[in-house]
Design a protein that fits this description.
- There is one protein chain.
- This protein is of the alpha+beta class and 698 residues long.
- The protein has two domains: 315 residues, Beta-galactosidase, Chain A, domain 5 (Distorted Sandwich), CATH 2.70.98.60; 214 residues, Aldolase class I (TIM Barrel, Alpha-Beta Barrel).
- The protein is built from 13 helices and 33 strands.
- The strands form six sheets. Strands 6, 7, 8, 9, 11, 12, 14, 15, 19 and 20 form a ten-stranded antiparallel sheet that branches.
- Strand 28, helix 10 and strand 29 form a beta-alpha-beta unit.
- The longest helix is centred in the C-terminal third of the chain and has 19 residues.
- The structure holds (2R,3S,4R,5S)-2-(hydroxymethyl)piperidine-3,4,5-triol.
- The site of (2R,3S,4R,5S)-2-(hydroxymethyl)piperidine-3,4,5-triol has 11 residues, from loops.
């Protein structure tokens, strides 16, 4: 298969169907990045590391080691010893000094791919993926590092991670442990990132990189609304079809950094990993730290090819849910219909009307527990509010089922309201700095998921409700970021582990959930789309994309999201007008077309919207289910873009065998004196004849 080692020249060559990634060892054992780009039949050799260029030859001239390290294209650069560019690994020894230097020791190539302990990660069987383990060492620290590279040939993806172990006798401290690095020559790259805000997530941003460091990052304890753990470097002017793209995407749901650095020698270093700020990990002798996975993708055919690689990769090698290719019930969620103001009677009225229009599931959102009539109480008290749900939850679920709908429910298990029995009983379970009043956000605190007893409590709250009634779906929400990082259970020298331990705790809880309830359809959510990342995809096949449900705003949000995520992962609902987030009115049909490019549903009071809108629902649902298999497995092409300041937006999904395609065109703004527009379709068979559905046109 695709990974070979050439002993003579000390070169590792990792091939995918269309790409080659090459690693070369220097005589000293430094691990150099030699090549990433179009597939090569043969790799030229280690000359690409340019170690022969004077004066950068450490084995002959030890005086110049710093100059060498400062321009050597490294696979996993270490800090403190003379490479002044961004490092991937910073280690402090027992005396408190920072410095590490890694040398190759051995390697192993295996079919398939190992799981990463406690972390979400891509998977694949032998024949689908091959993995290179590079074992390296800092003999002075007694530090061992295992670099993992998994090559997925069909998807043109390389997944990377690193495991760092203390095999010495002194305790070490990791100050930084990134997951991937890519050192390249500058090509006047443009940097493509996804940025935004609450209700404006993942807008595509493009800028030329300059000297120095430019990054996107999060220190919010989640991947965040504002910046996304994705970075692509593209050749200038790269389009959907043309140009080179080097992309990295992080399989992680907490603090991250994704950075490009243009150095004095016109080299570019691209790195990705857990943010080094507020991160420090004590590594006692015998202990290991597993860094999360970063997904690398190279495309020589523009952004479109990159998009399709990521879509295929996530569908086949990251999402585990049995629903990934299965029909998903069209749901109606009561959030925008009622907010906190509902009871059994109201929900049943919505359910009855929904059933009459062909909707298949009712989801009860926030407000069903404790005394939660607003957002300022009861998180943590997951007992049904019997004043609202008079007959109790099993009774409501039974009645909804009798109407003919499945039932889904909302939770926010990671949080606690100060006004809750849970907080009154366990104030120390909230993340907080001793002696300082913790900062409220949305009137709530964050539970300390690094503590097992807290995780067990929060998990049992969710699980016992799910065990009490036939519940098909859970929306797992998280409505604030983390701050006041203090844990009542960690010693002072481990407090800086809290951000990461929180994420590990979250992953453990979600793993328990999908193991105990394998048939549950789980949708992750975070105040809209603040934790829309590949880590969460490992647990839930769909994620709520944004609290902005306005069809026109969604064009941008969904274009950015679909740049890397398959449409089947993008929660998208038809909502009422004027839109609650932006006040805009759009035709019901347009709202339906836009939501079709996602996991489809409704978010409105169906008992109140006009009859002519209700009448369109059965047709929309029929269309959704008709094209669901195509949308779930087809190739996505971006044709025109409202993001590019055009007055229209257009995308299509073509079946892999080219037998059919669905094209969606949205005219956002009208203009006088214009004729209709030709659209040039992609992904079709050049020698086939296609019929335009509903017409005789071919
Ligand atoms: C944020 C979510 O994105 C909304 O859909 C809704 O569930 C609210 N939270 C409820 O508090």
């Amino acid at each position: 298969m695709g990974i070979q080692y050439e002993e003579n020249r000390k070169i590792f060559k990792l091939d995918t169907d269309n790409t080659t990634y090459a690693i070369a060892l220097t005589p000293e054992g430094y691990i150099g990045h030699a090549y990433y780009g179009p597939r090569l039949r043969e790799f030229g050799g280690a000359y690409r590391l340019r170690t022969a260029e004077a004066p950068f030859t450490p084995s002959v001239n030890k005086r110049e080691k710093s100059a060498f390290l400062d321009c050597f294209p490294a696979e996993y650069p270490t800090g403190g010893i003379g490479d002044y560019r961004e490092s991937c690994l910073d280690v402090r020894n027992g005396q408190g000094s920072l410095g590490a230097e890694l040398f190759y020791r051995s390697h192993r190539i295996e079919q398939g791919k190992p799981a990463l302990e406690g972390l979400p990660a891509s998977f694949g069987a032998a024949g689908e993926v091959e993995t290179l383990h590079l074992f390296c060492e800092d003999p002075i620290l007694g530090l061992r590092v295992e670099l993992l590279y998994s090559a997925f040939p069909k998807e043109d993806v390389i997944a990377r991670s690193a495991k760092i172990s203390n095999a010495g006798r002194q305790p070490l401290r990791l100050e930084k442990a990134y997951s991937a690095c890519l050192d390249m020559d500058s090509q006047d790259f443009e940097m493509i990132t996804l940025c935004g805000s609450w209700a404006r997530e993942r807008h595509i941003q493009r800028r030329r990189i300059g000297y120095g460091r430019q990054r996107v990052s999060s220190l919010k304890g989640e991947s965040s609304h504002q910046e996304h753990p994705f970075l692509a470097l593209a050749s200038p002017g790269a389009t959907q079809e043309q140009g080179e793209v080097f992309a990295m995407h992080f399989v992680y749901s907490g603090n991250f950094i994704a950075q490009a650095e243009l150095s004095q020698y016109d080299q570019v270093r691209m790195v990705m990993g857990i943010h080094g700020e507020e991160f420090s990990w004590k590594l006692n002798p015998g202990e290991s730290f597993q860094a999360p996975e970063a997904v690398l993708c190279y495309s020589a055919e523009g952004l479109g090819k990159m998009t399709r690689s990521f879509h295929d990769f996530y569908r086949d090698h990251m999402i585990r849910s049995p629903y990934k290719y299965k029909k998903r019930s069209v749901l109606i969620n009561n959030w925008e219909a009622t907010y906190f103001d509902f009871d059994t009677e109201k929900l049943l009225a919505i359910a009855k009307e929904a059933k009459a229009r062909g909707i298949e599931m009712l989801v009860m959102d926030d407000g069903w527990f404790g005394k939660r009539n607003w957002d300022d109480s009861s998180l943590g008290d997951w007992q049904v509010n019997l004043e609202k749900l008079t007959g109790g939850l099993p009774d409501l679920v039974r009645k909804v089922n009798e109407i003919g709908l499945e039932f889904g429910i909302w939770f926010e298990p990671e949080m606690v309201s100060p006004d809750s029995d849970l907080y009154r009983a366990h104030p120390d379970w909230a993340i907080q700095i001793q002696g300082r009043e913790a900062t409220l956000s949305r009137a709530q605190y964050v539970l300390d998921l690094s503590r097992k007893e807290v995780r067990d409590y929060a998990y049992e709250c969710v699980a016992s409700i799910l065990r009490s009634a036939p519940i098909s779906y859970v929306k797992w929400d998280m409505n604030r970021q983390l701050c006041d990082m203090g844990s009542g259970s960690l010693p002072p020298d481990r407090q800086q582990e809290l951000f990461h331990r929180y994420v590990l705790g979250l992953y453990e809880m979600q793993e328990r959930l999908v193991t105990e309830f394998p048939q549950l359809l789980l949708e992750n959510c975070s105040g809209g789309g603040a934790r829309f990342d590949p880590g969460m995809l490992y647990y839930s096949p769909q994620i709520w994309c944004s609290d902005d449900t306005d069809a026109i705003e969604r064009l941008r949000i969904q274009e950015g999201t679909a740049l890397i995520y398959p449409l089947s992962a993008i929660g998208a609902h038809v909502s009422d007008c004027p839109n609650h987030a932006v006040g805009r009115s759009t035709p019901f049909a347009t709202r339906g077309h836009v939501a079709l490019a996602g996991a489809f549903g409704y978010e409105l009071d169906i008992t109140k919207i006009p009859e002519e809108e209700r009448a369109q629902i059965p047709g929309q649902i029929e269309t959704y289910h008709k094209y669901e298999p195509l949308m779930h497995s087809g190739d996505y092409y971006r044709l025109l873009s409202w993001t590019d300041q055009k007055p229209f937006d257009c995308w299509m999904v073509a079946a892999k065998d080219g037998s059919e395609a669905l094209v969606t065109y949205v005219q956002v703004l009208g203009a006088a004196g214009r004729r209709s527009k030709h659209i040039f379709l992609k992904g079709l068979q050049p020698d086939a004849r296609y019929r335009l559905e509903g017409t005789q046109e071919a």
